[in-house]
Design goal:
alpha/beta, Macrophage Migration Inhibitory Factor, two-stranded antiparallel ribbon, 6 strands, about 25% strand
Amino acid sequence: MTSMHLQVAPLQNPERYPLLAQALTDLAERWLGAARETVVVLIDDLPAARWYVAAQPVDRPAAQLHISLPAGQAGDGQKTEFITQALKALQRQLGRGEPLAVGSGVIVREVPPQHWGHCESAAAQAQGVA
């Protein structure tokens, strides 16, 4: 399972969320080797007045993307390319091509299998309940 938590400021139109989720899922599948059906994307938006860099509120769109994936799922080159492509996608979608606020970024964390637990798919759960 690949889990992504995207925080954005300022508040976005909720109609944009499916496009963001689609773009991030596509990138995870392509660059991180994630199985599409196991990619989870959580999106939180914040008022710009709640996002600070150097104790100053951001003056343009900002984004932080935190990704957790199983250790060994992707090599260093794949993770680097994912970060590059994810930043470009966020800048395109949130900044409309303009640079994002300083402090925006992407963080990839690898999680050892013994530190990861998640619910099975609905189909797998249904098979286990008899």
